Amino acid sequence: MELIDNINQLLGDDLKKTLKPQARLKIAASCFSMYAFEALKAELEKIDELSFIFTSPTFVADEVTDKLQKQRREFHIPKSDRERSLYGSEFEIQLRNKLTQRAIAKECADWMRRKATFKSNRSKAPMQQFACVQAKETATAYMPLHGFTAVDLGYQQGNAISNLVNKMDEAAFTSTYISLFDQIWVDPEKLEDVTAQICDHIASVYQENSPEHVYFLMLYNIFNEFLEDINEDVLPNDRTGYQETLIWNKLFNYQKDAATGIINKLETYCGCILADSVGLGKTFTALAVVKYYELRNKSVLVLCPKKLADNWLNYNRNLKTNIFARDRFNYDVLCHTDLSRTSGESFGTPLNRINWGNYDLVVIDESHNFRNNDAFKDKETRYQKLMNQVIKQGVKTKVLMLSATPVNNRFNDLRNQLALAYEGDSENLTKKLRTGKTVEKIFSNAQASFNAWAKLPPEARTARAILETLELDFFELLDSVTIARSRKHIQTFYDTKDIGPFPERLKPLSFHSPLTQRTDVMSFNEIFAQLSLLKLAVYAPISFILPSRLKKYEELYDTQVAGRGKLKQVDREKSLQALMTTNLLKRLESSVQSFRLTLESLRANHTNTLTKISTFNQTGNLSLKDSNIVDMTDQLEDLDADDDDLPMICADEIGGKVKINLADMDLPSWEHELKVDLEIIDGLLTSMNRVAPADDAKLQHVKSLILGKLSHPINPGNRKILLFTAFADTADYLYANLAPELLEIQHINSAKVTGSSAPKSTLKKTYDFQEILTLFSPRSKEKSIVLPGEPAEIDLLIGTDCISEGQNLQDCDYLINYDIHWNPVRIIQRFGRIDRIGSINEKIQLVNYWPDISLDEYINLKERVESRMMIADVTATGDDNVLSAQANDVSYRKEQLRRLQDEVIELEDLKTGVSITDLGLNDFRMDLLNYVKINGDLNKVPTGMHAVVPANLDLGLQPGVIFTLRNLNANITVNQHNRLHPHYLVYINQYGEVVTDHTDVKRLLDLVRSCCKGKPVPITDACRLFNEETADGRKMQVYSDLLGKTIRSMIEVKEEKDLDSLFSGGKTTALVNTIAGLDDFELITFLVIQEEK
């Protein structure tokens, strides 16, 4: 008897001596590893047979049902570890990282089929572990033997304190062990034969894998925790029947992913922002989520801007135009502005009796309109009312927000929207997130990063630069509560064969039209000079109160704003004056007619006020009603931030809250200012009245442009044109001057839709808003179902921004902006009506009309007006309101408007700040979830698997390898910069240069997805080339070296980031836990991108 200590003498070496030809090897141990086979390959090849007993149940069917197994998963870890150790135990990682496991598995499986039989202990009874070698003359026994792995053989280091083995060759001992083994071996009660399972299992290592299988194995390892967290409660419940609804079956694949993701996020975090790009169909995605909750008997409220109400109301009423009538939607629709009303009705609902607290789900369309704004004394803002009465009160309310631009350049906008989901108490969300910091802290850090980035020179201000400075926690937060994909993302990573492509965008046409060719009319610049002289004192009565009387009004009307000092009524008036000046300018830019009408209403306002003053001066004692002048600033509150079509406010129409007694005013000064303004207004009106439609240069140009398009369509037979303007006045003017003529000469029908009056068309019958849109875009609006047997069709549609969002009008291929909206986002949203996925048009054209001045002049003009507004605004509220929503960062806008002259830009490319599109990992989770639902768990699949795909430079796939690694050393975080820690993805090319490092997680996952998803069988040619190069996986040195370089690259990136962190504010990551090297990582999968020969 001797002692083997596995330090000076190794068990493996001793076995090599005792394993003689024709010997029989009997082992009872907890696990078997193919690396042990490899170490003793030559000797094992010569023996007669191996009989192996797994001493604890291994590879036998579980008696526990699946449901129990999920709850008791931790007790089953040892079993799955035993099964996994077949391809190397946790201490044989070095061997596995040589990447030769495929070749070894092949040899091992071949040998097993010929020489080995495996049985497993099927009882709970413990069994002793030992090995016996029976040769012709001698027998040898070894015990204890934990497992049959390279560690137990002494060839690799394990974690045991000692690894002593007794070797016995005395007949008395050996015969006892052999008879014990033989006795158990033949007892079917105790053992079950598992040879077939083992051979199948090991075959999975060396067979060719399909790219899709490796993709899902990678996802399974990375997002395993997500699967564990997910239970029936936070996933859509199939039993509700939501998958049978019309709306669900109308969705494209990417919309279904979003809808499932939204439901999961709403159930987990109570809130979600859907910010998919323009033209991807957010309305339908939201409707599918609404239907799911309605099927669960929940009550739903949709809050939308007034101009979009008709769109939502179309689907919850029993109307012909409702293509989902069979789904019987029954949500309520109210407008954003209804939150600040307490009486009257909204779409038939009495506002004073609404049970605000009883909604289980609130869908907020255009949720970026909900920014905190402080308003009048003792009055709740819309935001506060939504928070206090709808969300906090009554039943637990979930919030789904829809917005194409949730982040501009203030993260507070995003935080305020999210606050609706966590009921204003960020702790509600913080405790559900896997972040180290609170929500408040994450946002303040993100804002600091953004501010630093915004100060960089324009060329350094790239999207990549900001993403690198934002913290991990910020991405974790976004990923938890937002879903935002761009068009590029959908085109690249989804199979859009069934949907069809996006149409090709032709270069935009830009026209700079003068007001008129007449010489006796002022030019654009002259008019602007006159407008700059207007004081608009009619909107600022408080500025003319006598100093001695001022205190009384200040006490009445100034509002204390929390933490920011006073909001003065005087400043409110300045805001109103600035807003009205801008309104005049925008209307001039739109059309002569709109400008003319606005001047007329302004003139009436002035003459009425002057009449009041002169009557008061003569009598000195008006009746109480007439002696008061109404301050009009409370109109500011009811304006929609994005609404351009502002009313020209008249005092007579307002039951204003702020009333000023004429006796308290410095009337001579006010009267003087009003008369000066009136003179300017009269001068402008005289000039404008000279311009008849025949003299209106822009109108005549657009007429000839339309006739040109009708005679030369850009897609064969398509005569449709969509004409946008910001103002209803201009739409009326265009309709009056275009429609009759087009009907008479071209025999085409026209229609106009504005938010402010009933739709009109040249057809004999009257149609409502939705019917007009259906007749204009019969294919996308499913006219054959909605209005069967209706022969009429409309080819020219004139509309305001009431149709710039949430409408699918893609039958049309030609869009004209009759006036350029000051916010480029709106232009992109307008174009999104026809620039949509699945369009039948090959090409689409955008036409923009600009004022007849150079772009620089135009932008400077806007800057001057806006800086006036901004000054007024900052003093007025110190926070967001109508004005700052319209006056965004000018330097960005300059660049955008310049680009808009030559190209159609994506919303995400606007560079207005941080775009949150394409940062979320939701698509991958949904992929995994759908896969596991159909194919079951992947926890038994070995790691280290690979697939081979051909290179494809169009997708960004150059020859090389994408490795997925798991960090084994719990103390190490290669950095605070990797969102997937402890998993690391790195893409390295065949020359050992890093293509994409581990910090760019989203890009790497996207790449793998684009080349693997939808490829369920191995790609034969690529596999053949790879196998030739590596001698069927035996010569893996090249790839093994690339793996080493990959890990070194991670260390270098960490050091570089650490150095950055030393010299930037905040906590440094330098000198914190570094990586020793290869042995700190386990290879999960690798994807070989094979160069085609």
Q: How would you explain this protein's 3D organization?
A:
The structure is a single chain. The chain has 1093 residues and is an alpha/beta fold. The chain is 42% helix and 14% strand. The strands form seven sheets. It has an eight-stranded mixed sheet with strand order 1-7-6-5-2-3-4-8.
Please describe the topology of this protein.
Layout: E1 2-4, H1 11-18, E2 24-29, H2 34-39, H3 41-46, E3 49-54, H4 66-71, H5 73-84, H6 93-96, H7 101-115, E4 116-121, E5 130-134, E6 139-143, E7 165-168, H8 171-185, E8 191-193, H9 195-206, H10 211-222, H11 224-229, H12 246-250, H13 253-269, E9 271-274, H14 282-295, E10 300-304, H15 309-313, E11 332-335, E12 345-346, E13 349-350, E14 361-365, H16 382-392, E15 398-402, H17 411-421, H18 427-430, H19 439-454, H20 463-469, H21 472-481, E16 482-483, H22 487-493, E17 504-505, E18 509-513, H23 524-533, H24 550-557, E19 559-561, E20 565-567, H25 569-590, H26 592-619, E21 628-631, E22 658-661, H27 667-688, H28 697-711, E23 721-724, H29 728-746, E24 750-753, E25 760-761, H30 769-776, H31 783-786, E26 796-799, E27 814-817, H32 824-831, E28 843-851, H33 855-876, H34 882-886, H35 890-900, H36 922-935, E29 945-950, E30 960-967, E31 983-989, E32 994-996, H37 1001-1012, H38 1020-1030, H39 1037-1062, E33 1081-1090
Parallel strand pairs: 2-3, 3-4, 9-15, 9-16, 10-11, 10-14, 14-15, 17-28, 18-28, 23-26, 23-27, 24-26, 27-28, 29-33
Antiparallel strand pairs: 1-7, 2-5, 4-8, 5-6, 6-7, 12-13, 19-20, 21-22, 24-25, 30-31, 30-33, 31-32
